[in-house]
User: Fold these one by one.
Assistant:
Number 1:
Amino acid sequence: MSFESDAREAGFSRRVTLAITGASGVQYGLRLLQCLVQLEVQVLLMVSRAAQVVIATETDLKLPGAPEAMERFLSEHLDARSGQIKVYGREQWMAPVASGSGAPGAMVVCPCSTGTLSAIACGASNNLIERAADVALKERRQLLLVPREAPYSEIHLEHMLKLTRMGAVVVPASPGFYQRPQSVEAMVDFIVARLLSQLGFEQTLLPRWGEALL
Ligand SMILES: Cc1cc2nc3c(=O)[nH]c(=O)nc-3n(C[C@H](O)[C@H](O)[C@H](O)COP(=O)(O)O)c2cc1C
């Protein structure tokens, strides 16, 4: 498909869309971004306004708000190659992710706020993250959603069921404890490993079930 061959022509292994929205657990999204960069993936990134508030609350990162400045900051912070991280703003409708002809084969919303979950389930497309997810659904491309809320309301559960039936995969931010994680980072990696596996990467963050468990 052209969006993947474009990425390979530019020297990247693949191209993936990543949206970080304003649920708690932005560490999952930031770690996934770091892993994708290390895997030579070109990442088309969107960070919602609420996610920027959560990043400032939950991490020490001083993330600039403007897309160009955010792109420069993250590229330097994660030692990404030139052009590897592309950041798009909330109304940048000419971005590749806004159309089936330009969007990558996979999109991850990590973490996914219940607000964005609702907008995706209803096809609202009121900002670029919602539009990109709408494109992924209409084109039958891979869409991974990482919601975090507790408890879930019937509305949240209905949206997750509806989106699952449409082909999206819900990967809740619910790390397991059977590997006896010794750090927050290990718990974050538990979820990121599952996302990388879903995306088809050989992940090395965690042993697979049945291999070296305890
Ligand atoms: C510190 C903080 C933590 C939040 N945690 C959650 C959460 O865990 N789950 C959630 O769905 N919303 C959470 N919210 C609320 C969302 O950020 C809010 O509903 C926002 O409108 C979502 O916008 P977005 O989907 O465009 O990112 C949190 C907000 C803040 C500031």
Number 2:
Amino acid sequence: MVERIADSEENLLRIADVESSFAGGVNEVFVQPLAKPGRVLIGEGVLTKMCRKKPKPRQFYLFNDILVYGDIIMSKKAYIKQRILPLEDITVEDLADDGVMKHGWLIRTPSKSFAVYATSASEKQEWTTYMIKYGKEQLEKTGKIPEKENAAVWTPNSEASICMNCRKTQFSLLKRKHHCRKCGSVVCKSCSSNKYLIVAVSPRPQRVCDTCYDKLTAVRPPIVIRPVPPRPPAIKTIGRPVSPLQHTDLPADLRAAHVPNSSPHLPGVQGSTATTGQDPAPPPTASPASSHLT
Ligand SMILES: [Zn+2]
Ligand SMILES: [Zn+2]
């Protein structure tokens, strides 16, 4: 069905329409043409995007292969700052309702991650369902292996009155807020004086907080490969050779208690009743609800 719409005149006209609605900006030199064989416009609408300072309405277009959004200049007519995210890069993560911020979810990609909010639960359901569905299809089509790491979701300015790194600097007109591009924290200037190249986020080095900078630049201890000492010449031993503690080396009363891979301490050393130590660890629990497009 999708393929049929793709070639239909209506679909081509709608895509041309979207394309021209982004072309009005004065400095819009980087607006990309959207018409492409096989591309279908699935849905469109205004979503509230959590921006650095506050939530703002943004126009979104969901195609079968990309998500396009931009700032609204004139409702239903003109948009600027076009951004394009390939669907196969998107991980959708549910957000619980929080006060007035309802019907939201996270859009995570290696280059950019942010929260968006729909006006109703059903609208949210529709957007997320199609984002996941077409994202999966794109992953299959392109054979891309999803990036392991997504960009950090920026903490909104309003959520930090003091620096999230030093926990000392009080933000004010003079003490400006900055965002670490690695972890998304709101930090002070002196806690974010370093830049680091995060290729997926930007081709230029970006501001990072001191904690992230230390982690990113930490020198890992080199792996020491010890030479294997030559084996001593075989000598005849009298009696049993000395070997590491083995299950069968234990006295019979301890043997039952010696459970490999359980408690690291040796049971019953003082001759008391041997125990098996701790119970085995419980099975790992399921990870929290999050849907990667795999
Ligand atoms: Zn600080
Ligand atoms: Zn950081």
